């Protein structure tokens, strides 16, 4: 849902786009919010993007 605007605009300008959502807790398992999980996943995502960008 958060990415609809990005996809709409990128589609109009014929620009490829991808949305990656990072979740740092699981409310169903009553896990507390842990910002370090999100930070680690952001770093991994950045490395993957850099690898395939070239």
Description:
Helices cover 52% and strands 0% of the residues. With 54 residues, it is an all-alpha fold.
Gross morphology is flat
**What is the mean pLDDT?**
86
Q: Topology as H/E string? A: HH
Low-confidence stretches: none
**Radius of gyration (Å):** 15 Å
Q: Tell me the major beta sheet.
A: none
Number of helices: 2
What structural category do the secondary elements indicate? mainly alpha
How much of the sequence lies in strands comes to under 5%
Give the strand tally: 0
Strand and helix layout:
Blueprint: H1 4-12, H2 35-53
Task: Briefly summarize what is shown.
This protein is mainly α and 54 residues long.
Protein traits:
mainly alpha; 0% strand; 54 residues; flat
């Amino acid at each position: 849902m958060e990415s609809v605007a990005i996809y709409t605009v990128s589609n109009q300008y014929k620009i490829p786009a991808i949305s990656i959502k990072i979740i740092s807790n699981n409310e169903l398992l009553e896990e507390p919010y842990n910002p370090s999980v999100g930070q680690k996943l952001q770093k991994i995502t950045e490395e993957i993007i850099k690898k395939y960008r070239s």
